[in-house]
Design brief:
5-stranded mixed β-barrel; about 35% helix
Length: about 250
């Protein structure tokens, strides 16, 4: 069957001496693997279509649920800036790997596709990297069924919450329930309000937000704990970001 789909390259790997296999995140067909023959050759007209982060329209033949075979494609947005800056490359790679590991094959990916597309566009346009990535993480948690609860107590649903957040239980705790998780993390009132705001925002509507470094540091701790506790992925891109942070320090 012949497909014509817009897709974003979230994984690209060598296959044989001259070919590549790319994994696309698509709006209507979830994740799809496509074989691109000759993509490693110097004069290949398809090489650019296999670059990580590329958003393009792909025309390929696919039988059943196997790999597709690329016929041709047209790039819509190359996102070359994300491949030219090491910091941007690291965080964009993290977004793609996180989605790749969380989204199951053939799972309908409309929400995932649009959030990833918005994430890459936000990174390319110079929006705050950390806020963009934390917002993307929140969207991934929501889509995966682990939406954090910040406006009411995650345990008893009371509206009154403290600044104690339990990644293990999945959200903020009220005064009566904060004893349920001795490992709960205390954050400032400003960080809690920002989390309450971000959990409601669609990435496609993210504007320019100015956030204090102390708030970013608290958010980083909270979101890392949520991702480790709720999803438990061991991501190469996350380890690379950790190494970059150590180098910056």
């Amino acid at each position: 069957m012949l497909y014509r789909l817009e897709g974003i390259v979230i994984r690209s790997m060598d296959y044989g001496e001259s070919n590549k296999i790319i994994t696309l995140c698509t709006e209507s067909h979830g994740k799809i693997g496509v074989l691109v023959k000759g993509a490693k050759k110097l004069k290949s007209r398809h090489a650019a279509l296999t670059q990580l982060f590329t958003d393009a329209e792909y025309l390929f033949y696919r039988q059943g649920t196997g790999l597709g075979n690329l016929n041709q494609g047209e790039i819509l947005e190359s996102h070359h800036l994300l491949r030219e800056d090491l910091n941007l490359t690291a965080y964009a790679s993290y977004a793609c790997e996180l989605l790749d590991r969380t989204l199951q094959d053939e799972e309908v990916g409309s929400f995932w596709f649009h959030q990833l597309k918005a994430c890459l566009e936000a990174l390319s346009s110079g929006k705050d990297i950390q806020i963009t990535i934390h917002l993307f993480e929140l969207k991934v948690l929501q889509a995966a069924g682990y939406a954090p609860v910040f406006e009411s107590c995650v345990s008893c649903s009371r509206d009154e919450v403290t600044e104690m957040i339990s990644p293990r239980l999945g959200g903020a705790l009220c005064p009566r329930c904060k004893h349920l998780d001795p490992a709960a993390i205390r954050v400032s009132a400003g960080t809690l309000k920002l989390l309450q705001l971000l959990v409601k925002i669609d990435l496609r509507r993210l504007g320019n937000i100015s956030v204090k470094d102390t708030t970013k540091a608290e958010m980083k701790t909270i979101m890392r704990a949520f991702m480790d506790m709720q999803l438990g992925h061991n991501l190469k891109s996350q380890r690379f970001i950790d190494q970059l942070d150590q180098f910056k320090a």
